[in-house]
Structures are given as structure tokens and as C-alpha cells.
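User: Here's a structure from my thesis project, written as C-alpha cells. My advisor, Dr. K., wants to see whether a designed sequence matches the one we expressed. Can you design one independently, without my sequence as a hint?
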């Protein structure tokens, strides 16, 4: 189904700013629909010649009331309507005035009351908002009358182009509904009336005195947005709390007449449950973050213990082995460090890569200077995949800086060692290429028979755990020489 913006730009001659205005109107007209217990239609003139010489109408929007059953079962959005079927809409377009009358609706035997309100924007009538009112059950109650009078004031604002407001943040999914409770404030800030649900909400905030005739401040309630909407004619929202458990959202809709604020409709919504839920979610997130933090700290403790032990050892072999173990533990800690900042099922792998590069530089670069360059990125990966992949990459990067340039080039001190890590996602795989411009792999090197621990770990992680592939090859001398390691792991891999 086409959106309002698509329909309007394809079928009408309305410009972008007028379409924006209509979008803002339909974003907040659920309020209008509920206040008037009516179905709403938004119609604009079609910008194509018609067979009868008069422009047809296209329905750009449709809204059903939440507090009444609808009169219109069909979805009319995008349909073309003949002007002779909607003479009052035509009249409203021609006269620029609100036209009130009756219209015959398909699946109802009787005619129903209809209001056709011109939607004015920049001095032009860009659309007609039609309101089709369903039968009222008996005479309108006091609240129904009050709702209808607010609706009428808002309709005048639509015709004066003061509603919808120019601000973007007027409406949205969080907008309280009419049924949640309404307080009508007069031009001097005093409560004109409060619906039963609004009174309940005030009780929840500890205000039991009758509110009519008093300002909210006199009642002991400080809601600055109400005063601000009165003063500046801006719609605004504020959450008012009582202790930890009660939270009521006040949504203020200023009413204007000839440019002056004559009152404010305050929609109230009890969001205490939502807030509690939010707090639970936040607590859980904090707990997960804390766990990662502790895991990271524990791993760091282990790596320091290994370092201490390495220092105490006289055997060079033992020192090296312990040093490597320390580095492996630290590469796992890197992942938990990132997760402790942003816990979740997924992790931004590129942050991990940055830390891994620092780690490798830190452990081996003292041997000889090497530039490590990272190209591309892997984006977010599942945490299950990120941890083993980080360990394998740390291993391969270490090998490159450690082995590729050992005794390389003899007296040729001009040779600058460069290790490039290229990352990308391709065809559902995470691809990592580690390339160096060093001495290359030895004659008898074979990845498939590694006796040394480092590559055994890498092979186990990439092939057995992550069901991926790894290839190691010499880069031809003409292409710069050195070693290329290519790792590909399915993004869906779970060890
Ligand atoms: N980028 C590289 N350039 C040259 N030789 C390499 C490279 N990567 C690995 N090798 C060779 O593969 C051997 C095995 O590596 P590895 O299993 O990590 O063990 P270790 O790093 O402990 O020697 C290394 O000793 C080295 O000879
Ligand atoms: Mg190694």
C-alpha cells in the first residue's frame, strides 16, 4: 500500500512542504478522531484530467475512532472519489469554509452527519478533512460535549493552519490517547474540567482536592510544560513522578484562536507500569554488563599471574610459552571488555579489532618495528562467533609480526615491515585476510601438519569450531612477497 507521501506526490500537485504538513496532521489526528467519536478522511484534489471536467479527489488518509465502532469498513486510502459523490467536500474546497451537512454511507441505511474542514497551509487549501460521525448513544454526556467542543476548537485551528503544529515531536506512538484522561485548562491556567480517568491519575499523584477552577500549581502539582504551552503555544510532554512507583505522562496540546492561546488540552497517561518494566530491563542490562566486566577482570588477573610466572622462570622456552598463554587470555578479555560496555547478543567486531591490534603491538613490536594496517570492517557479529574469531586473529597477527620479519633482509634496514588486516563480509561469510611483506613461509611449511601450538589453535577454531576455511600461501615476489593468510567463516557459525 502506498504511503501518504507517495500518494500525494504521485497523484496531486502538492509540494513537499504541504505534504509534510499533511503528514504531521495525520500523525496526530487520532486525537481528533477520538475527541469527535468519528471516522476521519483526508482528501486532496487529483492532478489529472477527469472525464467530467472537474478534478477528482484522492483519499490520502483514513482514521477510525478508538472509542466508537467505525462507519467505514473499507480501506479507502488511495481510492479515487468523484466530486459529485462528495458535494460537501467540493463545497469546502470552493468556499474555504467548514461545511457541515450529511452524507450517505454505504453500509448504513441512514445518512450520517459530516463536517468538511479545509486544511489550510501557507494560505492555500491543500486538502479537506472530512469527519463522519457515528450515531451517538442517547444525548451527549457532559464529557462527550466537552470532547466535541475541544474537537471544534482544533478544527478551527486546522483551518487556520495552526494545527498540526510545526514541531516534529508533537505526536507519535507514545502519544497518550483520549481515553487515558483529559484535563482542559483555560487561558489563565485554571482547570475547566477533568475526565474521570484524569481525576484517577491526579489521585495517583496524591492530589485529591477537586481540581475545577484551580491552577495545577494551586493543587500542588508542578507541571512546567502546562505553563510553557500556555505561554509559548508549543505542544510539550513531561513525566510527573510520585516516589518510585507512580509516573504520569502529561502531554500538552495548546489551543489557539487568532494567534492567541485560549487553553491547553492536557492528555494524561499512567506510565507507571511502563517505567517499572523499563527499570527491570535496565537492571538486567546493567547486570549483564557487570558480569562481562567481572569476567574481563578475572581474565586480566589470570594473565598477570602468567606474566609473573614467566618472569620468574629461567628457561627461555618456558618464558615464551607463558608469555603466549598470557597473550591468548588477553585476547579473550578484549571481547568481554567490549561487551561490558555494550552488552548484547551481538558485538561491534571492529572495536575488538582495534583492541587486538593494540594488544599485538604491545606484545611483540618491541622485537622490530612493524606497521599494522586495518582495512574494511566486519560490522556486528554474534558474540558466540566474535570470541573465537578474536583469538584466532590475534594468533595470526602475532605470527605475522613475530615470524615474517625475523632476520629478514640482512643488512637491508630500509625494509619497512607492513602487516595488513583486511576485513569484509561477503556472501554470508566473514572474511579476514592477514598479509605481510616479510620472508614468506618456509619450503616445508604445511598448514595441515602443524606441530606448533599457535597454528593448531587457529586450525581448530576456524575449521572445527566455526566450520570455516583457512589458507596460507606465499605471495609471489613480483607482487611484493610475504605471506597471505585467508580466513572465511560463515556469519551464522556457532561454536
Ligand atoms: N606470517 C608468517 N611468515 C613467516 N612464517 C610464518 C608466518 N606465520 C607462521 N609462520 C611459520 O609457522 C610456524 C608456526 O607458527 P605457530 O603455530 O604460530 O607457532 P609459533 O608462532 O609458536 O612458532 C612459525 O614458527 C613460522 O615458522
Ligand atoms: Mg604463533
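Assistant: Designed independently from the structure alone:
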Amino acid at each position: 500500500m502506498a504511503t501518504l507521501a507517495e500518494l500525494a506526490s504521485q497523484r496531486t500537485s502538492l509540494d513537499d512542504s504541504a505534504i509534510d504538513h499533511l503528514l504531521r496532521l495525520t500523525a496526530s489526528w487520532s486525537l481528533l478522531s477520538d475527541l469527535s467519536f468519528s471516522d476521519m478522511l483526508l482528501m486532496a484534489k487529483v492532478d489529472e484530467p477527469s472525464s467530467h471536467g472537474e478534478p477528482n479527489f484522492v483519499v490520502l488518509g483514513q482514521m477510525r475512532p478508538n472509542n466508537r465502532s467505525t462507519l467505514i469498513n473499507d480501506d479507502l486510502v488511495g481510492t479515487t472519489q468523484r466530486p459529485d459523490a462528495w458535494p460537501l467536500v467540493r463545497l469546502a474546497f470552493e468556499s474555504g469554509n467548514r461545511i457541515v451537512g450529511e452524507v450517505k454511507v454505504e453500509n448504513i441505511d441512514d445518512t450520517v452527519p459530516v463536517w468538511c474542514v479545509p486544511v489550510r497551509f501557507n494560505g492555500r487549501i491543500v486538502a479537506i478533512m472530512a469527519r463522519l460521525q457515528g450515531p451517538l448513544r442517547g444525548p451527549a454526556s457532559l464529557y462527550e460535549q466537552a470532547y466535541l467542543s475541544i474537537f471544534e476548537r482544533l478544527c478551527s485551528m486546522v483551518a487556520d493552519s495552526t494545527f498540526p503544529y510545526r514541531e516534529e515531536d508533537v505526536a507519535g506512538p507514545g502519544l497518550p490517547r483520549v481515553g487515558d484522561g483529559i484535563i482542559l485548562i483555560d487561558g489563565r491556567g485554571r482547570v475547566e474540567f477533568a475526565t474521570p480517568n484524569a481525576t484517577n491519575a491526579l489521585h495517583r499523584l496524591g492530589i485529591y482536592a477537586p481540581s475545577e477552577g484551580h491552577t495545577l500549581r494551586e493543587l500542588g502539582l508542578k507541571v512546567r510544560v502546562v505553563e510553557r504551552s500556555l505561554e509559548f503555544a508549543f505542544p510539550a510532554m513531561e513525566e510527573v513522578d510520585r516516589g518510585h512507583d507512580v509516573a504520569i505522562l502529561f502531554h500538552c496540546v495548546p489551543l489557539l484562536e487568532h494567534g492567541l492561546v485560549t487553553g491547553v488540552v492536557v492528555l494524561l497517561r499512567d506510565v507507571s507500569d511502563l517505567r517499572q518494566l523499563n527499570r527491570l530491563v535496565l537492571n538486567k542490562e546493567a547486570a549483564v554488563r557487570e558480569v562481562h566486566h567481572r569476567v574481563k577482570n578475572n581474565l586480566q588477573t589470570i594473565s598477570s599471574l602468567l606474566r609473573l610466572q614467566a618472569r620468574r622462570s629461567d628457561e627461555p622456552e618456558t618464558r615464551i610459552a607463558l608469555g603466549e598463554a598470557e597473550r591468548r587470555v588477553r585476547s579473550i578479555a578484549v571481547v568481554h571488555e567490549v561487551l561490558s560496555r555494550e552488552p548484547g547478543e551481538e558485538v561491534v567486531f571492529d572495536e575488538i579489532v582495534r583492541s587486538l591490534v593494540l594488544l599485538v603491538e604491545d606484545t611483540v613490536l618491541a622485537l622490530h618495528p612493524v606497521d599494522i594496517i586495518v582495512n574494511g570492517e566486519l560490522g556486528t557479529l554474534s558474540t558466540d562467533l566474535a570470541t573465537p574469531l578474536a583469538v584466532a586473529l590475534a594468533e595470526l597477527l602475532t605470527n605475522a609480526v613475530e615470524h615474517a620479519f625475523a632476520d629478514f633482509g640482512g643488512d637491508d634496514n630500509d625494509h619497512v615491515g607492513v602487516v595488513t588486516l583486511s576485513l569484509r563480509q561477503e556472501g554470508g561469510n566473514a572474511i579476514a585476510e592477514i598479509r605481510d611483506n616479510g620472508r614468506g613461509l618456509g619450503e616445508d611449511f604445511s598448514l595441515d601438519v602443524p606441530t606448533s601450538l599457535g597454528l593448531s589453535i587457529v586450525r581448530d577454531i576456524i575449521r572445527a569450531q566455526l566450520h570455516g576455511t583457512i589458507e596460507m600461501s606465499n605471495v609471489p615476489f613480483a607482487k611484493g612477497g610475504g605471506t597471505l593468510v585467508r580466513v572465511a567463516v560463515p556469519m551464522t557459525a556457532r561454536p
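When you compare it with your expressed construct, this may help: Residues 399-400, 403-404, 436, 438, 441, 450, 452, 454-455, 483 surround adenosine-5'-diphosphate (ligand 1) (CB under 6 Å).
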